[in-house]
Specification:
Blueprint (H helix, E strand, L loop, with lengths): L1 H30 L15 H4 L7 E10 L6 E9 L3 E10 L2 H9 L9 E3 L3 H14 L15 H4 L16 H5 L4
Antiparallel strand pairs: 1-2, 2-3, 3-4
């Protein structure tokens, strides 16, 4: 009988964690005034830092899709990775140069009049994340009561660029074998 209670307790705990993450994601998008229209991709760059339970499960990774050497205009593609390998393509953003791109992810992102391709809505992103997390045991980071995210992880600028068409973010960096 004790095994049934432990199993039920774990199932209930997982369901409550998933509901907390879902509500936190909805609040995240609501706080950013994002409605049901497709999202400008740089807007969600800070998602893993603003939803503490997703810090180790979700990454938003930009990559250079096209760069015009004559004008320095750069088109950035955006991927959202859940648990390192489950990818959702968010679209593209175009920037006048790489410095302007860096500023767009370091501070409050505002839509520019440069062209962009917007592929996903807040509801689609939330559904994708929740579907992946619900299928994987232990995917959510459990925050102990009274704890907070370390200050270094709240910084918007990553310590090292994770840009490149073959990179899927830091998941593999954290889990690569040490020789």
């Amino acid at each position: 009988m004790a095994n049934v209670n432990v199993k039920t307790k774990n199932q209930l705990k997982k369901a409550l964690q998933e509901e907390l993450v879902k509500r936190t994601l909805i609040k995240y998008f609501k706080d950013k005034s994002i409605d049901e229209s497709p999202i400008y991709p740089p807007t969600v760059f800070d998602l893993p830092y603003r939803v503490p339970e997703l810090l180790s499960a979700v990454e938003v990774v930009p990559f250079v899709e096209h760069m015009d050497q004559m004008t320095n205009v750069v088109t950035i593609g955006w991927n959202l990775f859940v648990l390192g390998t489950n990818r959702m393509y968010l679209g593209t953003s175009t920037h006048t140069n790489l410095m302007e791109f860096r500023r767009s992810i370091s501070g409050p992102t505002q839509t520019t009049n440069m062209p962009s391709e917007r592929k996903k809505t807040a509801a689609q992103i939330t559904e994708f994340i929740m579907n992946i997390l619900s299928r994987n045991k232990g995917a959510l980071l459990e925050m102990p009561p009274g704890s907070s995210i370390p200050l270094f992880s709240q910084m918007m600028s990553p310590d090292r660029a994770k840009i490149g068409p073959t990179m899927s973010g830091s998941f593999y960096e954290k889990n690569k074998p040490v020789f």
